[in-house]
Write a structure and sequence with these properties.
By secondary structure, this protein is mainly alpha-helical. The protein contains 16 helices and no strands.
Amino acid sequence: MGIGSVTMAKVSDTARLTGRIARRVGWGVGDQAFSSLTNFALGILVARAVAPTEFGAFSLAFATYTLALGGSRALATEPLVVRYAGSSVEAHRSAAASGSGAALVVGAVGGAVAVLFGATSTGALGQAFLALGISLPGLLLQDSWRFIFFSGGRGSMAFLNDVLWAVVMFPAVAVLLLTDHASILLLTLAWGGAGTLAGCVGALQSRVVPQPSAALPWFRAQRDLGARYLGEFGALAGARQLSLYAVGGIAGVAAVGAIRAANILFGPIDVLVFGIRLVAVPEAVRILKRSARHLRAACALLSAALSAMSVAWGALIFVLPERIGEAVLGQTWSLAHRVAVPIAVMTAAGGISGGILVGLRALAAARRSFRARLVVSGLQIVGTIGGAAVGGAVTAAWGLAAGVVAGVPVWAWHFKRGLLEHERTFGDASDEP
């Protein structure tokens, strides 16, 4: 074969690979966008259908669901993506059975706690948590299929499963509204029951039967990753909440509202980033199997892309006409616009760190990512509190941004050390004959 033919063949292979990755990224972004839009629409429907206290109860139940989701992902599905993306079909199916079973067990334990809390509470709060507790195992099972499908390169299956959830849920909610049976108990059950049905259908889609009996062996086998990923999730969530509480206590509740409103404006970027990450981690695992140098380059490109998108969106928010901003956020717009620049800087720096974190996930360097997360969370808390103490919402937002920016070298250093450790242990696949 001539040199020209070899070159054309390589170009053709690269084009096909790029096309496959682009399709997988498209499914990831589309799935996350659809999921976020579904949650937003559900929140609007519930808020319009019930009294404020009942909506507050539903919001607390949904917030508890997101906490359980973070725990399930850390213990059950993120280790599956890191260890089994790009593995053989048989190995991936076996891991899927164990990982989905582990998600069911996390849901059962969390659901039991929610039911107990609901049974000892009164009114709307008790109803919301009873419904959540009943639904939580199925909800966490449904989420596990998303990671299983994406780690297996079948993002379209995850999208179809989320569509099924919405197709069942919204008619059920509509029936409750039209028949005047829209109690918080039944509305929460409509949401959770539809998710549970989608979780059961996910087993049919994947042709994998979840094995709860394999949960404990799974937790033991993945404890080097799962425990640290759980710690990362706790540090991230804790830093966010503690920072907001500190801002409220020092600079006032209005400052918290300003930062929260600005974060809402950057919600589309958050959706995009999470959708890309759904695909990026399994793709990074596959890239690492070819070459550690390729992983370094891919993560640098991802960091640049995520950061550039954040900067572009921040510029758009900054020049947005006042009448449009007020139509979106009402009177809160003026406060949110004042902190838009530091939040854009924070989001851009977070994009750089996000690309690096994908690399640490691919390396299975959970010890390093956990240490980095602890340091960066501390920097964010100190920066936010310091900014709030100096001034109001704007300086608090700049302090938060400074903490995230200062964290970028921390992430980069740990990624560099993780790559060196991997190359010393395994070499670089690109150096092999």
